[in-house]
Amino acid sequence: MYSCSQSVVYGSHGVCTIVDIEDKLIDHKTVQYYALEPLTQPGARYYIPVHNELAVSKMRLPLSAGKLREMLANANCDSSCWIDSDNARKNRYKELLMNCEPENMLITVRLLRQHRDAQLAIGRKFHVSDANFLKSAETLLTGEIAFVLGIDKTEAFKLI
Q1: pLDDT tens digits for range 125-146
Q2: Fewer Cβ in 10 A, N or C end of the chain?
């Protein structure tokens, strides 16, 4: 169980603060919700049912500074990790964003950057779905890195 004022990473919404644990009356039943406010959107709220295991499973504590530094130092992938099928790659992207798997996301971001650079070097375009995932993943990773290490997003982006 999480508590008020605790910071969590919630799926593709990034780092959020639990601002309240509220009871809401839904269909004549009282349901308890975590009220999350994303750091990137002050004033916005996401309500996550406390007893909904699937929804709560998308919440996790931010990585520790030590774990984050270790991940940044060791998350490498060679071209053998590339998924050739566009559909399989898109499905993997959805899975990574939904589950907010930071280490696998970082590996994929680094691989996509290499792929983008290689495509551009031979005069080919970078696939739109790859570019969209890259942008979303970089935003999520940058937000968590900046939050955990207490640095600005520009510096966090450079660490990716």
Answers
A1: 999 999 999 999 999 999 999 9
A2: N
More confident residue, 123 or 101: 123
- 153 vs 57: CA distance, rounded Å: 26
Alpha-carbon gap, residue 63 to 61, rounded angstroms: 6
Q: Helix, strand or coil for residue 19?
A: strand
C-alpha R_g of the chain: 18
CA distances in angstroms from 43 to 4, 17, 38, 40, listed in the order given: 16, 11, 8, 10
Q: Considering the entire predicted model, what is its pTM?
A: 0.87
Query: The tokens of 119 are what?
Result: 């495509």
Task: Say how far apart CA 52 and CA 32 lie, in whole Å.
Answer: 10
Q: Do 114 and 11 contact (CB within 8 A), yes or no?
A: no
- Any long-range contacts for 36-41 (C-beta under 8 Å, 24+ apart)? 36/8, 36/10, 38/10, 38/13, 38/14, 39/14, 39/15, 39/143, 39/147, 40/14, 40/15, 40/143
**Helix H or strand E encompassing 93:** helix 86-99
Phi, psi of 27 (to 5 degrees): 50, 50
